[in-house]
Amino acid sequence: MKFLLFIILNSLVLSNLWAAPAKDLDKQWAAFSQTSTLSVSHDKWQAILDRYLTTTPDEQTFFSYSKVTSEDHKLLKSYVSDLTTIAPEQLTRIQQKAYWINLYNAKTVDLILDNYPTKSITKLGQGFFSFGPWDDKVLTINDKKITLNDIEHRILRPIYNDARIHYAVNCASYSCPNLAAHAYTAENTEQLLDKGAEQYINHPRGVLVTDEGLKLSTIYSWYQVDFGGNEQDLIKHLSLYAKPKLKEALSMVTGKIEYVYNWDLNEIK
Question: CA-to-CA distance for 167 and 112, rounded, in angstroms?
Answer without folding.
Answer: 20
